[in-house]
Amino acid sequence: MYKRLVLFITLLATLPSATAAESDAVIHGSLAQATTYTAFATIGFITFFLLLLAASAALRRGIDARHASGRLVVRWQKAELVSGARMARTLRRGVQILALIFLALALYFYISLVFSFFPATRGYATVLLAALTTPLWMVWRAFVDYLPNIGVLAVVIALTTLLTKFVHVIFNELGKGTLHFKGFHPDWSDTTYKIARFTIITFAAVVAFPYLPGANSPAFQGVSIFVGVLLSFGSGPAISNLIAGVVLTYTRAFQIGDRVKVNETEGDIVGKTLIATHLRTIKNVVVTVPNSIMLANHIINYSSEAHGRGLILPTTVTIGYDVPWRKVHDLLLDAARDTEHVLQDPTPFVLQTSLDDFYVSYQLNAYTREAQKKSTIYSALHQHIQDRFHHAGVEILSPHYTALRSGNAVAMPPEHLPADYVAPPFIIRGDD
Question: pTM of the entire structure?
Answer without folding.
Answer: 0.54
